[in-house]
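User: Please predict the structure of the protein below. I'd like the answer in structure-token form so I can feed it into my own downstream comparison script.

Assistant: Understood. Taking the following sequence of 124 residues as input:
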Amino acid sequence: MTHMSRRTLLSLAGALAIGGPGRAAEPRRVWRVLQRDEAERVIGTVELDAAFRLDVVTAEPDRAEWLRDLVRRINEKPVLFIDAVPAPGQPRFAQTSRSVGRGDPEFLEALRDELRRYYDIELQ
């Protein structure tokens, strides 16, 4: 497995557009997985189901293990965390977060943030 600092980009296949925050994912959307090193290259495809679980459909042999492992770890998380406004009485610029469960319409936003922040992956 390669280190997580490699930049990867997940791009929606075809002209499909996902809903923004507050909109549930439609069942079984197919995404192309692009690796961005010196140049972008497709390293596989994944599906995103209505419960926001990813499934690897295809993967390039040299990235298959890494991609399957990442998808497994993300799918095991019942909640993710997103940035939140500080509660009254906390310092103005305090860093706070709140949990978002898999059934929450904001889970897609949290999933995108998790992948971007910790794995250098962008869902587009």
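That's the full token string. DSSP finds two helices and seven strands in the chain.
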